[in-house]
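FIELD: query
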Amino acid sequence: MIEAIIERCAGIDVGKKFVVVCVMTGGAKDEPRTQIKKFGTIVSELQRLAEWLVAEGCTHAVMESTGSYYWKPVFNLLEACVHVILANAADVQNRRGHKTDPNDSRWLAHLLRHGMIRPSFIPPLAIRELRDLTRRRRQLIGENSRERNRVQKVLEDANVKLGDVLSDVFCVSGKLMLAALLDGQMTAEQIANLAKKKAREKIPQIVASVADHRLSGHQRFLIRHALRHLEFLDQEVEALNQEIRRRMEDPALAEAFHLLQSIPGIKEESAASILAEIGADMEQFPTAAQLSSWSGLCPANHESAGVKKSVRTNRGNVWLKTTLTQSAWAATNRRGSRLQSRYHALRTRCGNKRAIVALGHTLLKTIHAVLSAKMPYREDPAITRDDRNVERAQHHIRCLKKLGYNTFAVE
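FIELD: result
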C-alpha cells in the first residue's frame, strides 16, 4: 500500500446542477474511511458542503477544471475554509469503464491523498478580477475589429472601393468620406477633397473608388447602426482602461507594472495584461522554464530511441501567448536592442512566425527575471546586425584562404 501524504482530504466531482464529494480520512498507513455525499450548487448547499468539510477536519480538497465556469462558484465558497486544488482534467482521468460521479470523486480524493495531483495555477482574487477586466477589454477590441469588417463588407456590396485606396477606412480622412457618403449630398470629387495629409496624394483614385456607387438606403441604415455600435464599444473600452489603470495603482501591483514597462515592446496595456495572467509574485513559478512551460511558449518534448523530433508548442495560456506575441512584434522595432538582434538571427534560420514565437519566449524569460529580481530591465549594447554581418564576412574570408584563394578589398 502506498503511504498517504494528506490524511484528511476531499475529492469533488463538479457538475452544473450538483456536486458529488468524497471525503477520505485516516492515518497515513491505514485504510482510509470514505464518505460520499451529494450537494446542490446553490449558495446554501455549497455552504452546507463547506461546513461538512470543516466538521470532518479536511485540510485539502481537489476538483477538476470542468467547463469554463462550473468550478468557480465552488472554489469561491471553499477557498476560505480549505486548501482547494484545481486539477487539469486530462491528468486525473479515471480508469475506463469506471465513469460515474461517485467513482470520479473517490478517484480524485485517492490521487490527492497520495500527492499525485499537479495543481493548476489559481492567482489571488485581486489578480483574478484584473484578469476579468483585461480579457473583457481584449474581447471588446476584437468585436470592434469585427464590426469594422462588417462596415467594409457593406461598402464592398455597394461598389464603394475606399478600402482599396485607403490603408484604413476608419482613419481621419476615411471617417469624413464615410460620413459624406451616408449623407448623400456630395459628388465624388467633393468627397475626395475631404482627404487629409498623405491621403490627398490619392485624390484621383478616391474619386474613382466612390464614383457611381450603389449605396442604398438599406445599406446606409446598416452602416449607421454599425457606427453607433463602434462608438459604444470605444466608450466601453475606455471605461475598462480607466478601471485597469486604477487597479494598477495598487501598491501590490504598481512596482511590477512599472518594471515590466522597462522591457522593450511592453507598454501599459501589455504590462497590465501580463500581470493579469501571471501575477506579480513569481513564487508560483520558481524558474523561468516552469513559467514558459505553463504558458505554452516553449516546445513540448518528443524523444524516442535517442532521436529528438520537432514538435509544436503546447496550447498553454492563449491570452498570455497573444499578448507576448504582440509585444515581440513591437520589440523588433527597437533599434539596437538585443531582442531585435535575436529576432533577425532567428528569422534567417526559421522564418518570421517561428522567430516571433521564439522571441515571445525570450520576452517571457526576461519578464520572469525582472519580476523575480524586482529590478528594471537593462542590457549591454547588443551585437547589431551589421556587426554580425562583418563577423560572417570575416569567417568566409578565412574559409577562402584555407582553400588557397587570395582575397582583397574592392574600393
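FIELD: remark
The chain is about 55% helix and 10% strand.
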